[in-house]
UniProtKB/TrEMBL annotation:
Name of the protein described by the UniProt record: Myotubularin related protein 14
Polar residues biased stretches: 445-461, 490-502
Region (Disordered): 1-37, 440-461, 480-510
PROSITE patterns: TYR_PHOSPHATASE_1
PANTHER family in the record: MYOTUBULARIN-RELATED, MYOTUBULARIN-RELATED PROTEIN 14
Any GO MF annotation of the entry: phosphatidylinositol-3-phosphate phosphatase activity
Bias type Low complexity, positions: 1-29
Species assigned in the record: Sarcophilus harrisii
C-alpha cells in the first residue's frame, strides 16, 4: 500500500497518480469507458479488488478505475492508498482515493500536502478488523474541508475472532496489525476479560482513524441494534457498544429499510410514493435517535417516521445529512449500514449529486461525468452486488437515480444557508432587481414532485401552504461561494433552520394510500394500481413545462435522464423480468421511445 500525490509525473493508475487528468483537461474529456460500458460491466459481475487488473478480460475494469482517478483529479489534489490485491479490503477499490484539498488545475503545483499518508495507511491497516467484512472508515467526499466517509458497521465477536485467527495462522504466528503496546497495559489485562481486551484494541484503532479524519457525526442506517443470523450476533454497532467507547461522538440512529425492501418498490412498478416499511417485524429493534440539537432546527416531525413512505423517509434523512455537513463546526460525517454496499452508497451518492448540483463540489464536472463518477466509484468499485440485487429484484441502485426528481427544489440546496448567512442584520425588503432575479433562480420549482417548498412562496390560490416572505441575499452564487472557500479555507457554512411547509392534499397519505410492506410481492402488487399516479413513474418522459427550471433542477434532471436512457438500453431492458401485467416492460419501452432510443424486440 502506498500513497501518491495527484500531481505526480506518472499517468498510470498503478502509480496512484491523477496526472492523466492534467493532460486531458485542456482537451475534450475522454469518452471511454462510457456509461453504457460501465453499466454493462456492473450488471455482469461484482467488482473484487483481487480480481482486477489481471487478464485481458479486465481491461474494462482498468479503464473504469483510471477514469475515476481522472475525474477526481479535475478538482482535487489527492493521495491514493494502494489496495491492488484486496489486501486491505477485498470489496474496496484497488486505488482508494484520499482527497486532500480542492484545487483548480492551475493551482495544483503550488500547494504542498500536509497529509501524512504513512500515518493514514498505518491507521487503515490497524483499524480494518474493527468493521464488518473489513470495510473500514473510508473518506469519499471532501466538502469545505470536511470528510464525508463510508464504512460497514462494527464487527461482532464471531467475525472478529474468525478473521484475527485466520490472519494469525497465515502470517506465521504474528499479526502486526495488533502490535501496539500502548493500547493495553499490564494493569488492564488483569482487570478485563480477553474479549474486552480484543475489542478495546481493534475498536480503539477504529476510533483513532475517525479522529484523524475529524469525524464527529456517525449516522447508522441499520434497522437492528445488532445483526442476528442463526441466533448469533454477527455484527454490532456504535450505539450498543457496552463499553461506550464511542461516547465522544455524536451518534445518530436513523433506521432505513434494507435492500430486500426494494423488491416491493420494483413489484409496485417502481413507484415509491405510498410504500411504507413494516416497522413491526421482529428483527426491527433500532429506534430512531437523533440529538435534539439537530432535530429542533429541521422542522420535521420525527415522531412520525414510521408512517413516512419511501420518498418522505429518504428526503428527510437526506435533509438531516445535508444539515450536518453544513453545520458551523469542521467535523466530518460517517454514514454506514451493515455491510456498507447498499443503503450506504444510496445516501453517499445522493449527497455527492446534491452538493454537485449546487456547484459546491466537483465544480468542473459535467452531468454525464459526475454520473459516471458516482456510479463507478460509489457503487461499482465499492462492491455493490448489482448482479445479485437484480436477480432478486432488489433495485436500490435504480431507485437512487430515479429518486433525483424528488430533491431538485431549493429545500435540499446547501446554498440557501450560505445566502442567509451573508444576509445583513437589518434588511428592509427586496429591490426590483432582487425580485426579478428570484423568479428565474431562487424560487423553488412549481412542477417538480418535490417542489412543495421554496425560499419565497407567492400568496396565490395555487400555492402550497402559506409562508411569510424572507429576506435573502441574491448576490451570492455557487461560483462566488466556491471562490471564497478556495481563498480562505477557513469559512464554514452557517447552521440554519430548514423551513418545511405543511403537505398539500395530494402529498398527504390516506388510509388507502399507505401499504405496510411485509416483504411479500403479492401484497405489494395487489396495491400497486392504487398508488400509480400520473408523473410518479421513474421512466416517464419529461413533459413540456412553462416555468424556467432552476440551475439545480436542470443539473439533476440531466443526470437523471442520462441515467434512465442508458439504463433502459442496457441493464433495465435486459435484466428486468416482465411482470404478469407487463407494466414495467411497457414503461421501459415508452421511455426508450420518448428519448429517441431504438429498441428491438429481441432486446425486450
Amino acid at each position: 500500500m502506498a500513497g501518491a500525490r495527484a500531481a505526480a509525473a506518472s499517468s498510470s493508475p498503478s502509480s496512484g497518480s491523477s496526472s492523466a487528468s492534467s493532460s486531458s483537461s485542456s482537451s475534450s474529456p475522454p469518452q471511454e469507458p462510457g456509461l453504457a460500458e460501465l453499466l454493462e460491466e456492473f450488471s455482469r459481475t461484482q467488482y473484487r479488488a483481487k480480481d482486477g487488473g489481471s487478464g485481458a478480460g479486465n481491461a474494462k475494469v482498468e479503464r473504469i478505475e483510471k477514469r475515476c482517478l481522472e475525474l477526481f483529479g479535475r478538482d482535487y489534489c489527492y493521495s491514493v492508498i494502494q489496495n491492488l490485491n484486496g489486501e486491505i479490503c477485498g470489496h474496496y477499490p484497488r486505488y482508494i482515493v484520499f482527497l486532500e484539498y480542492e484545487s483548480s488545475e492551475k493551482e495544483k503545483d503550488t500547494f504542498e500536502s500536509t497529509v501524512q499518508v504513512s500515518k493514514l495507511q498505518d491507521l487503515v491497516n490497524r483499524s480494518k478488523m474493527a468493521r464488518c467484512r473489513g470495510r473500514f472508515v473510508c473518506p469519499v467526499i471532501l466538502y469545505k474541508g470536511k470528510h464525508i466517509c463510508r464504512s460497514a458497521t462494527l464487527a461482532g465477536w464471531g467475525e472478529l475472532y474468525g478473521r484475527t485467527g485466520y490472519n494469525y495462522i497465515f502470517s506465521g504466528g504474528s499479526d502486526d496489525a495488533w502490535a501496539d503496546s500502548e493500547d493495553i497495559t499490564e494493569d488492564d489485562c488483569t482487570l478485563r476479560s480477553a474479549d474486552n481486551q480484543l475489542f478495546d484494541k481493534v475498536r480503539g484503532h477504529d476510533i483513532k482513524l475517525l479522529r484523524y479524519l475529524s469525524v464527529r457525526y456517525i449516522c447508522d442506517l441499520m434497522v437492528e441494534n445488532k445483526k442476528v443470523k442463526f441466533g448469533l450476533n454477527v455484527t454490532s454497532s456504535e450505539k450498543v457498544d457496552k463499553a461506550q467507547r464511542y461516547a465522544d461522538f455524536t451518534l445518530l440512529s436513523i433506521p432505513y429499510p434494507g435492500c430486500e425492501f426494494f423488491k416491493e418498490y420494483k413489484d409496485r412498478d417502481y413507484t415509491a410514493e405510498g410504500l411504507v416499511f413494516n416497522w413491526k417485524q421482529d428483527y426491527v429493534d433500532a429506534p430512531l435517535s437523533i440529538p435534539v440539537t439537530l432535530t429542533r432546527s429541521l422542522n420535521i416531525d420525527w415522531n412520525e417516521y414510521q408512517s413516512w413512505d419511501l420518498v418522505q423517509q429518504t428526503q428527510n434523512y437526506l435533509k438531516l445529512l445535508l444539515y450536518i455537513v453544513n453545520s458551523e463546526d469542521d467535523s466530518g460525517l460517517l454514514v454506514h449500514c451493515i455491510s456498507g454496499w447498499d443503503r450506504t452508497p444510496l445516501f453517499i451518492s445522493l449527497l455527492r449529486l446534491s452538493l454537485w448540483a449546487d456547484g459546491l463540489i466537483h465544480t468542473s464536472l459535467k452531468p454525464a461525468e459526475i454520473l459516471y463518477l458516482t456510479v463507478a466509484y460509489d457503487w461499482f468499485l465499492f462492491g455493490h452486488m448489482l448482479v445479485d440485487r437484480l436477480s432478486k429484484g432488489e433495485e436500490i441502485f435504480f431507485f437512487c437515480f430515479s429518486f433525483l426528481k424528488h430533491i431538485t427544489s431549493e429545500e435540499f440546496s446547501a446554498l440557501k444557508s450560505q445566502r442567509r448567512k451573508s444576509l445583513p442584520a437589518r434588511d428592509t425588503g427586496f429591490t426590483v432587481d432582487d425580485l426579478c432575479s428570484m423568479k428565474s433562480r431562487d424560487r423553488g420549482s412549481t412542477t417538480s414532485l418535490s417542489s412543495d417548498f421554496s425560499l419565497v412562496t407567492e400568496s396565490s390560490p395555487g400555492a402550497t401552504g402559506s409562508f411569510p416572505y424572507e429576506s435573502v441575499d441574491l448576490s451570492s452564487t455557487a461560483t462566488q461561494s466556491q471562490a471564497a472557500w478556495r481563498k480562505s479555507h477557513t469559512s464554514s457554512p452557517q447552521t440554519v433552520p430548514w423551513n418545511r411547509p405543511q403537505q398539500s392534499d395530494d402529498r398527504q397519505p390516506s388510509c388507502q394510500g399507505i401499504v405496510e410492506a411485509k416483504f411479500s410481492s403479492s401484497s405489494s402488487s395487489n396495491h400497486s394500481d392504487n398508488f400509480f399516479r400520473t408523473g410518479s413513474s421513474p421512466l416517464e418522459v419529461p413533459k413540456t413545462r412553462f416555468t424556467a427550471p432552476t440551475e439545480r433542477e436542470s443539473r439533476l434532471e440531466e443526470v437523471r435522464s442520462t441515467f434512465l436512457a442508458t439504463y433502459s438500453s442496457t441493464v433495465g431492458l435486459k435484466s428486468v423480468t416482465p411482470s404478469p401485467s407487463g407494466a414495467i416492460g411497457g414503461l421501459l419501452e415508452q421511455f426508450a421511445r420518448g428519448v429517441g432510443l431504438r429498441v428491438s424486440s429481441s432486446t425486450l
